[in-house]
Specification:
Elements lengths: L13 H12 L5 H29 L3 H26 L3 E5 L4 H34 L6 H10 L13 H8 L6 H5 L1 H25 L2 H7 L4 E5 L2 H12 L8 H16 L2 H6 L5 H16 L1 H10 L8 H12 L4 H16 L9 H10 L1 H13 L9 H12 L7 H24 L2
Antiparallel strand pairs: 1-2
Helix pairs in contact: 1-13, 2-3, 2-13, 3-4, 3-10, 3-11, 3-13, 4-5, 4-8, 4-19, 5-8, 6-16, 8-20, 10-11, 13-19, 15-16, 15-18, 16-18
Keywords: Membrane, Transmembrane, Transmembrane helix
Pfam families: CitMHS_2
Protein name: Sodium:proton antiporter
Length: 431
């Protein structure tokens, strides 16, 4: 971040906090207020974003450059999220019957592995609808929450493709297989612990359903894969991630794949998936507001983060994680990675060169692991911690599944279930 961001008043962080508060409380409001929010959220999100952007443009020297950079990041974000949403909407895994707890656990573990090859967004968009159909006899809110925990977040912690923060690290010199070689054990432990918690809850609920439904759930699953052409478009989108950033080439390829997918996918598949553009519309408007309003928060973090006393791997893990839960985890990762580099450099200045990154990785690998795992794992703590989270929530709601509110998600699942597991991971692997 440029030094001029020091001139931004702390009060400018208020729009970001207000937007997060509205996202959290409006769905819980009386019907009249809730109805108003459902029809006006786009205006509120964009309006708050424009308020912050206007201050940058007119009051901050060269602030327009920061706004343009943030807009570029948003376009890249929504191009990836949107194209994967459209392409995944053209893939239909036909599932008959209902899954047992063991089958659910195996499915989620497979999703965690897949997330490292097609990204948490890609894996989430492809698998969430089949997962709901697998459990259509007894689908509940905890199915969606644990899907977000495992497939939409923790699963993608091993490769740059897995989660956007890790891809940004790859672009800045972290080797492709660097985390895979060093973080498999904490990844396996965390995924395994979350799956164990899920299995206990799912088994208890499964035992409470009528025996006739248990018999139906025990029937062998019959799978049918429709929309296979979209596998090609999915591969094209993932491949586009590695294209140069110039001229929006990457985003153009992604959007072209989405358009081709939508045109070539038979209407019947979209109907079977209950595909609509509603979820991506909601994510698009809310996140343009989030991206714009969080600029002052991220600027403050970079300018004053060195004074927070963050020195040890545990510090970086929890500091990166706590902010990744409420800020977009990609820029949070970059800020703490830069903070780690600056704090450990003898001169206090770090060159943005591959050689400098290699030297830093060799000298302080535990700090990079801590920042990486903190950014990816803690993205599951709230609906807005990572891009796929809100998308999965919207798709589940569109399918008629009752999902927890913003605070319900945190109070019923994140704090009592996920957070102790993440703390235990740190205690074992990051001491």
């Amino acid at each position: 971040m440029p030094a001029h961001l020091a001139e931004i008043p702390p009060l400018l962080i208020i729009p970001f906090g207000l937007l997060l508060l509205l996202i959290a409380v409006m769905p819980l409001s009386p019907d009249r207020v809730k109805h108003w929010w459902e029809h006006r959220y786009a205006y509120v999100a964009v309006g708050l974003g424009l308020l912050v952007a206007a201050y940058y443009v007119f009051k901050i020297p060269d602030g327009g450059h920061t706004v343009l950079h943030t807009l570029h990041e948003y376009i890249s974000f929504i191009a990836l999220i949107g194209s994967l949403f459209v392409v995944a909407g053209g893939i239909h895994l036909n599932v008959k019957g209902s899954a047992t707890p063991l089958e659910n656990a195996v499915f989620l573990f497979a999703g965690a592995i897949l997330a490292n090859f097609v990204g948490t967004t890609g894996a989430s968009m492809v698998l969430i609808r089949p997962f709901i159909r697998m459990n259509k006899v007894r689908v509940s809110s905890y199915h969606i929450v644990f899907f977000i925990f495992i497939v939409s977040n923790v699963g993608g912690a091993l490769t740059p493709i897995g989660d956007p923060p890790l891809f940004l690290g790859y672009l800045r010199g972290v080797p492709f297989f660097w985390l895979l070689e060093r973080a498999v054990l904490p990844w396996l432990f965390t995924v395994g612990a979350i799956l164990a918690a899920f299995f206990v809850i799912d088994r208890r609920c499964y035992n409470k359903i009528p025996r006739s439904l248990q018999t139906q759930a025990a029937q062998p699953e019959q799978w049918r894969f429709d929309g296979s052409i979209n596998v090609l478009f999915l591969a094209l989108i993932i491949g586009a991630v590695f294209l140069p950033e110039r001229w929006f080439l990457r985003e153009i390829v992604m959007l072209a794949a989405a358009v081709a997918s939508y045109r070539l996918t038979p209407r019947l598949i979209h109907e079977e998936n209950k595909f609509t553009f509603g979820p991506i519309k909601e994510v698009g408007f809310l996140f343009i507001g989030i991206f714009m309003t969080m600029m002052p928060a991220l600027g403050y973090l970079e300018l004053h983060g060195a004074g927070f006393g963050i020195t040890q791997p545990l510090h970086y893990y929890f500091a990166t994680g706590s902010l990744s839960a409420v800020l977009d985890n990609a820029p949070t990762y970059l800020n703490f990675l830069k903070l780690a580099q600056v704090s450990t450099a003898t001169s206090g200045v770090v060159d943005d060169t591959p050689a400098a990154m290699q030297a830093f990785l060799a000298a302080h690998p535990s700090l990079v692991i801590a920042v990486s795992l903190g950014a990816v794992f803690f993205g599951a703590m709230t609906y807005i911690g990572n891009g796929p989270n809100f998308m999965v929530k919207s798709i589940a709601e569109s399918a008629g599944v009752k999902v927890p509110s913003f605070f319900g998600y945190i109070l019923r699942y994140s704090l009592p279930v996920l957070l102790p597991i993440l703390i235990l991971t740190a205690a074992i692997f990051l001491r």
